[in-house]
Amino acid sequence: MIIIAAVIIGALLGWFRAGRHGGNKRDRLQYAVAFAIAFAIIALFATVIIDRMI
């Protein structure tokens, strides 16, 4: 559940960040995918750490 939320949040942040820098649709899509992947990896580690603590 944490991973899905992180992917959505990351994609939105990447999309808006590229837009702020004047990127076109392809730039926005690239930023969205890159941020979504990065946030998913961070969320995966967070999920594993939380699971190990319980």
Automatic annotation (TrEMBL):
Q: Where are the transmembrane segments?
A: 28-50
What does the UniProt keyword field contain?
A: Membrane, Transmembrane, Transmembrane helix
Give the protein's recorded name. Apolipoprotein acyltransferase
Originating organism? Paracoccus caeni
